[in-house]
Amino acid sequence: MTYEFEGKNEKEAIEKAATELGLERDQFDVEILETQKNTLFKKGYVKIRVHTLGEQPHAHESEESYVAPVTHRAVANPLPQDEFEQKLLDFVSEVITRMGYEVTVEVLFREEKKIGIKLTSASSSILIGRKGKNLDAMQLLANVYAGKLGREDVRVILDTENYRVRREENLVHLAYTTADKVRSSRTSILLEPMNPFERRLIHTTLNDFTDIETKSEGDGLYKQVRVIYKGAY
Q: Do 114 and 152 touch, CB atoms closer than 8 A?
């Protein structure tokens, strides 16, 4: 299920969601929809969308498989440690092999309720796809399969060629350069469509800029973030 909450900042909105839903913080995912700084005539706020864990992911919904941070430490043993990990790795390997590409699949990291899978392939650029959409699609399938194995509590993260970390770094740089542009032009800029985690990264990167506002626009999984110079309004 998905719910929306508002607070004067992200922490307050998340705490309100946890209280009203009766959940612990690790039992739901958070997507920032809109941020508004305090002004002389208007109080600031943060609007979030909450996705409770345990539901089956669908193509039009955002899941932890998209919004999870990816800066993890590699595990000492990349081999599967139990039946669940073995079946998960076999599934991912089979999907990619049926796509016509050779791949080596191993565990990248293990965390509580989260597992990273590393793909090593000569066709990594194809597996990533434009803006990571192929990787996101395979990741979504892996999470659906994990649910079918009775492990809805585990979120699966797929990565190859360290794409996730490189993408984060590029998005932070994009956020800063876009803020400079809208500040100079005193207008707004609509960024490319992004998945929920990428949008949240833009929102949080610019959250402390007192003259900049961000909001998500559009429908579906890949919405766009508009970066706005508040002095223009």
A: no
